[in-house]
Amino acid sequence: MKHPLKPFHMGFKAKARKHRSDAGEDTEKKDAKKSKEGEIPCGIRDCSKYADKNMGGRSLSIDNAIETWGDSGYDARKGRVRVCKSCYRKWKKDNKSDDMY
Ligand SMILES: [Zn+2]
């Protein structure tokens, strides 16, 4: 399932808009409070939340991420894609199947 030379960024940019309402502040106040800001950014490009474990973040395999967000809708690290809680939920909805906690 490959799309030959599709100008993908245009589509993704448009889609990204609706999520990006307030993503202004991330660098400045590192030592303010640990509860609000995480250290691991969500790997989904549409998303500006955090994927830290203590914030409900999860890591998906690249294959899993592609199924839900497409070839270039995510950033992978070391073969995994870290996702925030809400992205994980979204993925889980898309993949109603295996595990239930
Ligand atoms: Zn996310």
Helix-strand blueprint:
Layout: H1 8-16, E1 58-61, H2 62-69, E2 80-83, H3 85-94
Antiparallel strand pairs: 1-2
The structure holds zinc ion.
What does this structure look like?
By secondary structure, the chain is of the alpha+beta class. The protein has a domain at 39-96. Helix content is 27%, strand content 8%. The chain is built from 3 helices and 2 strands; from the N terminus they run H-E-H-E-H. It has helices spanning 8-16, 62-69, 85-94; strands at residues 58-61, 80-83. It has a two-stranded antiparallel ribbon with strand order 1-2. The longest helix is centred in the C-terminal third of the chain and has 10 residues, at 85-94. 20% of the residues are buried. The chain binds zinc ion (ZN). Zinc ion binds at residues 42, 44, 47, 49, 83-84, 86-87.
